Amino acid sequence: MKTGLTRFPVKGVGIGLRRSLLNEFLSQDSIPVDFMEVAPENWIGLGGKFGKQFRAFTERYPFNLHGLSLSIGGPEPIDVAFVREVKKFMQLHNIRCYSEHLSYCSDDGHLYDLMPIPFTEEAVHHVAGRIKQVQDIIEEQLVIENVSYYAAPGKEMAEIDFINAVLDEADCKLLLDVNNIYVNSVNHRYDASEFLRALPGERIAYVHIAGHYNEADDLIIDTHGADVIDPVWALLDEAYEHFGILPTLLERDFNIPPYAELMSEVSQIRQHQKAATTHTAREHAHATA
């Protein structure tokens, strides 16, 4: 298995490519992003007009895959045929990495939601073994995302300990979702900063940032359908301060604003990266003065 994502598979700022964005994006001379991301389930085997349009983007921009259906924590066997199709798709389009959610979404059928994996030692071994199986097929490290969850059935260990144990045993990479940390910190009443700093920075491949919906004062729903709020931007700044400048992608799946507004939010990521770079340079200059 290759562990050669290098430090990061991509760089800079990114956006998720949705079919609803195709016409708008194609009408632009260029999109002010450094990379894009798609769900493989939505594009594998797609020919005709959409297939040609997708090829036009993969020839111009680096791409990551962010899967929806692998069900890495589920009880059903891994869909080996699908994973092989993912590998072919990655080779065809020079995809930089394949990421999935640290959750499950199937049990004798698709559940159409991301269900929480019990935080137990047994689950660590189960998930890590399945990640290794996928890695053996794609011949590179899988990238696993920390997810939002609303219940913790069978919990025997802390969420942070569960994530770190899976990453270590599976020897995989981490897709750091900053919004999910914030959402979980409110819903499950823990310190988001402490959680962030306990993650293994050397395993981070890239970052997701997104908006959410406040159902109540103590209940946030992860929707990817709203603007990123200030506390989440602040947590992203803290991630840059602690781990260095990380490739960061804006997730916007619903209530997608007009193109100019969408790109304005993308540009905010770049502004935060530049500010973090300036801050780091000043600290270095001060330390060496």
Folded structure, characterized:
By secondary structure, the protein is of the alpha/beta class. The protein has a single domain (13-288), classed as Divalent-metal-dependent TIM barrel enzymes (TIM Barrel, Alpha-Beta Barrel). The protein contains nine helices and twelve strands. The protein has helices at 22-26, 48-58, 80-93, 121-138, 159-170, 178-187, 192-197, 230-243, 259-288; strands at 13-16, 35-38, 63-66, 98-101, 104-106, 110-115, 143-145, 173-177, 204-210, 213-216, 219-221, 248-251. The radius of gyration is 19 Å and the shape is globular.
Tell me the name of the CATH homologous superfamily. Divalent-metal-dependent TIM barrel enzymes
Classify the secondary structure makeup into a structural class.
alpha/beta
Total strands: the figure is 12
Q: Please, how many helices?
A: 9
Fraction of residues in H or I helices? 40-55%
Mean pLDDT: 90
Topology pattern, helix = H, strand = E:
EHEHEHEEEHEHEHHEEEHEH
CATH architecture call? Alpha-Beta Barrel
Radius of gyration from the CA trace? 19 Å
For the biggest sheet, the summary is: 8 strands, parallel, barrel
CATH topology: TIM Barrel
User: Major sheet: order of its strands?
Assistant: 1-2-3-4-7-8-9-12
Number of self-contained structural domains? 1
Cα end-to-end separation: 45 Å
Strand content: 15-25%
- Please mark out the parts with pLDDT under 50 across 5 or more consecutive residues, or reply none: none
The CATH class label is: Alpha Beta
How would the global form be characterised? Answer: globular
